[in-house]
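Table S2 (text version). Query chain:
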Amino acid sequence: MNTQEKWHEMHSQKRHQPRYPSSDLVAFVLKNFKTNDQILDLGCGGGRHVKFLAENDFIAYGVDYSKNGIKATRELLDLHKLKAELKIASVDDIPYEDEKFDGVICYG
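Corresponding structure-token output:
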């Protein structure tokens, strides 16, 4: 099983999809960014931080290596009627142009 398959399998399990954002990440984002900043969650996993960004008026983006991670993030956003742009990609090949984002978070 390759690395991408391992992440795909892991993100198919609810126990690897935490519900709440990390308090230190919340504090960091609220201290360092302003409303409507474009922020990328690099390795967004199950989407808890993308959801936090979207519900707090940031322009949220999420990238994950796992299609199950992106699927879980999309389901979480849809459940709460939130929007974010999501893409399946590796952290070492981000599918956006340079300097697009006001910030990038990568937690865990």
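Notes on Table S2: The chain has one domain: 3-105. The longest strand covers residues 59-64.
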